[in-house]
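Researcher: Re-running this chain for the archive, since the previous output was lost when a drive failed. Same request as before.
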Amino acid sequence: MKRLFAFAAAALMLASCAQKTAVTSELVKSMSSPDGQLTMSFYMTSEGTPQYSLKFADKDVILPSSLGYELRGNLKAQNLVVNSDVVDKLDNDPSLPFNVGFIVESIDTCSFDEVWTPVWGEEDQIRNHYNEMVVNLIQVDGASVNTVMAQADANNGNDSESALEGKRMSIRFRLFDDGLGFRYEFPSQKSLTYFVIKEELSEFKMAGDHTAYWIPGDYDTEEYQYTQCRLTEIAQNFSKALNRNDSQTPFSPNGVQTSLQLKTDDGLYINLHEAACVNYGTMHLLLDPKTLTFVSHVTPEANGWKGYMQSPRTSPWRTIQVTDDARKQLASRLVLNLNEPCALDDVSWIHPTKYMGVWWEMIAGKSSWNYTDELPTIDLETVDYTQTTPNGRHGATNENVRKYIDFAAANGFDAVLVEGWNIGWEDWANCNKDYVFDFLTPYPDFDIEALNAYAHSKGIKIVMHHESSSSVRNYERHMEAAYTLMNKYGYDAVKSGYVGDITTPGDHHYSQFMNNHYLYAITEAARHHIMVNAHEASRPTGLCRTYPNLIGNESARGTEYQAFGGTRPNHVTILPFTRLNGGPMDFTPGIFEQNLEAWCGNKSHVNCTIANQLGLYLTMYSPLQMAADTPEHYAEHMDAFQFIKDVAADWSETRYIEAEPNDYLIVARRPKQATLTGSAAAFSKGHDTWFLGGVTDEQARSFTVALDFLTPGKTYEATIYADATDANYETNTQAYTIEKRMVTSADSLDVFMAPGGGFAVSFLAK
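Model: Regenerated structure tokens:
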């Protein structure tokens, strides 16, 4: 028997054009989180619009906010011959409201509690505990509503068994102790088969003019520094928040990206994001500063539509994380929990990796990706590099790559990334070129077979590099052959890139089409047992749970920008709250030479201390961790480099000790012993180990850290890498101290972080 909640005003409205009346809302059902702290309520308005709200204890988090869609109108559904006249009609076709005229057919509730084991992660077990409400809706016309209500009256209010005519949609809500997720579900039905989204209309009506930590809404890049201001001040700060990028499309001065971190005046931490973005465009948020309401703003396709759907289908989850402690926000696994379990039958080939690379020297300008400067354009089918003169600056040479392999092997690393190894780099960027790389053919000075054999003889794997230059068709054209080449030489990880505008005119990096491509690359890589680290791709939404070979992403302003003009120190204190909410970031830390002008003539300055760079190995989680600087710079500071050698890349337990977004962060982590390799395994020697690290913004900070995370009854040797008292990210970047002492879980540690600084500690049980 189905319980029907009908609203008379919806019938009047859909019967067409009754007099406008004030819209009212009626509470339908409420639900609490497992711990009772959060309460989510579902409403229907008198116009038949679904709404929800969210409270934390007695505090409003989301005020009643409307849900639904605006779809493309009916002409598209007809089998019309596409000619110029029809195209004009389609473009002018009226939209179809899919946010009014609904009745509630039924509501289903359940609870769920499990503990699952990630392939890699910040802990070896994650609890997935929620209460669920599924609201099943039907959009019907006025006559249908009146018929249903009349039948219910005839049955003295009992449930109606009548078959309703109309379009069906369900909204699934999952309420965790740390927040709410909801998504739209479109069941298989004759009345809604193929349809086109004009707009998604999910609202997030905030209860106050909160402090926001945001980057500009942009269809093509997340590579911005964060701005901190009130919600009502976003528009006036928008232009100042923009910086140049090879591809960028900001869409509104009131548009921001997720994961959006907010803080209320009374101490709540709220985060808006999405989970499991599959076959759908990436969501941004568009703020109405008058009502303090965010509305979902999905990245459009090249033609302007927001998505193409076929029932049965679900939308991504829209997430609202809420805590009263910044550390709890960092510990939230809500986004991961809203993704599907691992889809791969065999994950034995997926492993955390510490690597070095022929990369930073090109980023900083010391060397080049391209082999020659003589060729202004390249035709891969006819070019003959043996007839050109090498420029003498090419980074991916046999000699240079061997140098990195030797240093990585001597210091217990797993792999070496090599960029610029393949032909075509002379005219690769921003040329809207289809056939830009073949991902197969090396330059004359890169002997792929000999270098691979040399690396393997040293216990090192090579990390492949595939820069697509955003020519997606070309990458897919060569993908199978490129992955097969990797299998041939034992490459098990690839760094892919999507620099520049998408070559399909008008398309964007975060569209439904491109998100489908990124997932295609991941699933094809999985068939070849290849791990993927995608740069310039769409920001993660927890898909690494389902496809754990997605071992890293960039999708934010990374360390490379320290060579492109510098980045403010606070950047690394907000990223863990925002970008890392959806998955790990290949941030590429470990820069020891901050004076780039003295090294290679680059006038940019790296705004951090060496101790800060060590702290990032704890605060910027990634199972794919890079030591990004060059062997010669590490050779000058081998005592500090020891921490990078010792630190793990996979964890069984994580404790967030101190945290405040955009200010500071201190994290303790215990390694997963089974995944330790190289010098990290040598450091552990099978003993209980912990690592502690912290970073700060432009302000110097001191903390007393209780060591109660250590195992009681054990004594540890603590090696403390810290900023010197006169260290400073601008003037004295390489001033650090190293101290050893014996500690137990009953002790505490006084730590100092200089402006733009940080610290790191290794603990080895004796």
